[in-house]
Design brief:
Length: about 325
């Protein structure tokens, strides 16, 4: 069996099978609200620890120092564009918030991009993918959290400044930020990483991927293609053309090396984020919309985009 095909099957299995497991649990009577615990464990347990371990050995010098800023520019521009497009779609507030978050938050975390980078490029790929999303957690917590608060079902009529201050006091914001600081501190101090950390990182990636995918299965209520065909079409066009070309142009302009360029382009190709569903659950946005955009974009990515990408980079 070709190496790329084996990697493709492994990635698909660890994403799809836990989703099916979550669907089965839902049919057996497990409530949808259980997804909150799965998401919390995957993000605050697994991903937070993986972030520290991967940043510990990331290459942050030369042109690589631009990686986090290049990635951030794509997220911010996409969020602003999605905000404008959402006004044209004329949804209610929970649907607008769900669409903006699903568009602006690609699956940059360890559950797909990091998983692919680890499978295709080993530890250096995982380290660079984690380092490139260095500003993703601040963007997620300090940008996407307020968006979710603004459009959430329980939103209060407060000034934006008050919402931002409330968000800054949320302990869910600072735990991942402290993890980033810890990983960068160990990296900058040139502290040797123990050998056992490698095995622990691999295990947490698999566990976190399975846990968060199971949470998606608990939320699954159908693809809703007829209802959300416009949103999924916009997402497909953006992720298959605009996003990766934008990142490729930035990589060429800055002069990134081959690995960093591939990682950055992959950021543009990966589907909608699992974490958009987490915010939809936490702040009572439209989980059917976030689930539909995640499942459709993930399916298309695994079936068509990932095989081509794997063959090209191999």
């Amino acid at each position: 069996m070709h190496g790329w095909f084996r990697d493709e099957l492994e990635i698909c299995a660890w994403v799809i099978l836990p989703i099916l497991c979550g669907v089965v649990l839902r049919r057996l009577g497990v409530p949808r609200r259980a997804s909150r615990g799965f998401f919390g464990f995957a993000f605050y347990g697994c991903q937070t620890t993986v972030t520290v371990c991967a940043l510990w050995i990331a290459r942050t010098h030369a042109q690589a120092r631009f990686l986090p800023l290049l990635a951030l520019s794509g997220w911010v521009l996409t969020a602003l564009s999605a905000w404008l497009v959402s006004r044209k779609l004329r949804h209610g507030a929970p649907q607008r918030g769900a669409f903006i978050l699903s568009m602006s938050m690609s699956n940059n975390g360890f559950t797909l991009l990091g998983f692919i980078a680890l499978s295709l490029f080993g530890e250096p790929g995982l380290a660079q993918a984690t380092y490139a999303q260095l500003l993703y957690t601040p963007f997620f917590l300090l940008g996407c959290f307020p968006i979710a608060r603004i459009f959430g079902q329980r939103r209060e009529q407060k000034p934006l400044g008050s919402l931002l201050l409330e968000n800054a006091r949320d302990p869910r914001v600072w735990v991942p930020l402290l993890a980033i600081g810890c990983g960068l501190g160990l990296n900058g101090a040139h502290v040797p990483r123990p050998t056992f950390v490698r095995a622990a990182t691999h295990g947490l990636i698999y566990l976190g991927t399975a846990t968060s995918s199971c949470a998606i299965g608990l939320l699954f209520s159908g693809f809703h293609l007829r209802r959300f065909w416009r949103e999924n079409s916009i997402s497909l066009l953006h992720r298959s053309a605009c996003y990766p070309l934008f990142y490729w142009g930035l990589a060429r302009a800055v002069g990134l090396n081959a690995l960093d360029t591939v990682v950055l382009v992959l950021y543009g190709l990966v589907p909608s984020a699992l974490l958009a569903n987490l915010l939809a659950v936490f702040f009572e946005l439209d989980t059917e919309l976030t689930s539909s955009m995640f499942l459709v974009s993930t399916g298309l990515f695994l079936l068509f985009v990932l095989p081509v990408f794997t063959i090209v980079v191999r």
